[in-house]
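Hi F.,

I've been meaning to write this up properly since the lab meeting, where we talked about keeping a consistent format for the predictions we share between groups. The idea is simple: the sequence comes first, exactly as it goes in, then the C-alpha cells exactly as they come out, then a line or two of notes. No screenshots and no reformatting. I'm using this chain as the first example so we have something concrete to point to.
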Amino acid sequence: MLMEVDDNYLVENPTPKGIVSPWRRWNAEAAKEDHYTIERHTQICEWVDGIICSTQTLVDEYRAVNSNVYLCPNSVDPDD
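Output, unedited:
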C-alpha cells in the first residue's frame, strides 16, 4: 500500500498568519476531538509500503520515516 503526500505533515507547520491547522495537532492537543495528528501520520508513514511525494524536498523529509519514497512531481503547469 502506498500513500501520497503533497505537504510535510510530519511537523507542525503554521500558515503565514501563524495559524496551526487542527489537522496538525499533537495527540495531547487533539485528545478531546477526533482530529488527525502528527504522531498518527508518522506511524502510518512507517507502516505503509511506500510514500509518493510531489517534491524532492518532501522525498528527503519522508525518507526519515520510510525507506521507500518516490518522487512524482505535480503535473500542473506552474504557469496555470
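Notes:
The CA atoms of residues 50 and 68 lie 5 Å apart.
The longest strand covers residues 2-5.

If this format works for you, I'll send the rest the same way.

G.
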